[in-house]
Amino acid sequence: MTVESASEADAATPDSPRQIDGQTELDEFVAANDVVLADFYADWCGPCKMLEPVVETLAAETGAAVAKVDVDANQQLAGAYGVRGVPTLVLFADGEQVEEIVGVQGEDQLRALIGRYTE
Questions:
Q1: Are 30 and 87 in contact (CB under 8 A)?
Q2: Spatial contact of 35 and 114, defined as CB atoms under 8 Å apart
Q3: Active-site option among 38, 45, 59, 86
Q4: 58: exposed, middle or buried (C-beta count within 10 Å: 0-12, 13-18, 19+)?
Q5: 45 catalytic, yes or no?
Q6: What average pLDDT does the chain have?
Q7: What is the rounded distance in angstroms from the CA atom of residue 76 to the CA atom of residue 81?
Q8: Tens digits of pLDDT across the chain (119 residues)
């Protein structure tokens, strides 16, 4: 995973997932991008590891920015979004939460979901 500078992030939708730490950082990331797919995950979660290459591909190949939120390090943030199981994906469009998906989803399903908000 590459880390990009703030100027790169401001220039276009990031093409790699961005690690988020806290509500303020998530709010700023959502405000800076039209469509954001937030991946609430845990390092110990097998299904989360299965989903990781999918969200990396979606970050690189779709118009959505991808945020990664470690639920163990961000328990309050996970609680604020009602995350009860991992992985949980929350989709934001124009600053508003529009979708929530719990569990591993196929790349095609997630691409279609993102496509509804990026086209």
A1: no
A2: yes
A3: 45
A4: buried
A5: yes
A6: 91
A7: 9
A8: 444 434 344 446 789 999 999 999 999 999 999 999 999 999 999 999 999 999 999 999 999 999 999 999 999 999 999 999 999 999 999 999 999 999 999 999 999 999 999 87
What tokens does 75 get?
């328990």
Is 48 a residue of the active site?
A: yes
Q: Side chain identity at 42, as an amino acid letter?
A: A
Q: Which two tokens stand for residue 39?
A: 């991946």
Token look-up 């988020």 returns 20
Q: Which of 20, 26, 38, 48 is catalytic?
A: 48
Domains in the chain: ranges and CATH: 6-118 (3.40.30.10)
